[in-house]
Amino acid sequence: MTPSHVLIAGAGPVGLVSALNLAKAGISVTVFERHIAPQEDLRASTFHPPTLDLLARFGLTEELVSQGLVARYTQQRDRKEGLIAEFDMALLKGETQHPFRLQCEQWKLNTLLLDRLALLPHVTILMGAELQSVDQDVDSVTAKVKIDGKIENFTGNYLIGADGASSMVRQSLGIEFEGFTYPERFLSVSTDFEYADHLPKLSYVNYVSDPNEWCVLLKVPTLWRVLFPTRLEETDEEVMTDESIEARMQNLLPKDTPYNTVHRTLYKVHQRVAKEFRRGRVALAGDAAHINNPIGGMGMNGGVQDAFNLSDKLIEILTSGASPDLLDRYERQRRAVAIEYINANTARNKKNIEERDPQARQKTQSELRAIAASPSAAKDYLRKTSMIDALERAESIA
Ligand SMILES: Cc1cc2nc3c(=O)[nH]c(=O)nc-3n(C[C@H](O)[C@H](O)[C@H](O)COP(=O)(O)OP(=O)(O)OC[C@H]3O[C@@H](n4cnc5c(N)ncnc54)[C@H](O)[C@@H]3O)c2cc1C
Question: Does residue 344 fall inside a structural domain?
């Protein structure tokens, strides 16, 4: 073990951001990734302004922006009534260096991070390396990792569990993942059909409420992605048939020819937060620590914000002799944000978008119209929805 060596489980955005931040500070890192090659992950597509501000520390935000779409506006719509409220992210000028949402696939961030990590000599990325369990004592932490069918032990000063929703690190430590799983699943369908030619004034980010079948319409550079809830009585197989996908797409916007769908994926959706974010020399970050429904685009963003917070603290501990108790502050800060902001806002977003009670729907829509009509209320709303408030809340926790 070198004097400062951090083990990281998972080469998703959270593991790789942590790795690059630590490596740039001169700390040696080993990342274990169970897949044998980087995945073109179709999950996250929205980067919020404070996440872009943080990534600018690596000098990669401009490159990421050049590979995505700058979304100045976001919209709240209703499937029958059309546009309810439009929010102009330019109101956030002065609050962030990036007053827009970036619509860009999350794997593009992973690729940029891997490219930069490849330039650093004290970084080891082990692909096809599946973490099996974690053990620790007062001086070190050891990961048992399966590589080519054999178990190998790796020892470091600290270990970051960034191994996603089913985190083996979390399970190995027996940390409870408190919360619930929604009964329905979410279906994500990508198409090359150009919705903007058919739905007037559509923005790149559109939350479309409906009491029967809400949807989210998101543009990434070459495709539109549509997110639908499934019905409880549908089996996974039924949801994924060509006929069923085509029926959903035609029901949203009827057209004479069939939709060309490029990807289709079905997700289980949870609202869960780990009971502990830190146990001794091991800390959880990203989906390993908290998962939520994707309405509002907060999972990866929150995870990247965890990664900076945690790795900054590890740098202080390993290079400046700060007390390891600093990791308790990581837990206090980021667990509070996961519960109060990420979980609470995404759960509320889902409740509002699917609301069945006509009066409650009308009330939410009137509130949204009033907020959009007032620049100061709209700015407050955007600070909340783009996670600026969440980041400030974390900083305020001692
Ligand atoms: C449909 C959908 C849309 C979404 N849209 C957005 C959005 O717009 N904005 C947003 O912020 N979030 C969004 N999210 C959430 C976002 O995708 C996740 O929050 C994000 O991927 C979490 O990153 P992570 O690095 O923590 O985990 P992951 O991306 O899951 O990465 C974990 C990595 O660990 C690896 N791994 C797992 N187990 C092991 C093991 N035992 N050993 C070694 N490696 C292991 C995995 O292979 C994986 O590469 C969306 C999610 C869904 C489902």
Answer: yes
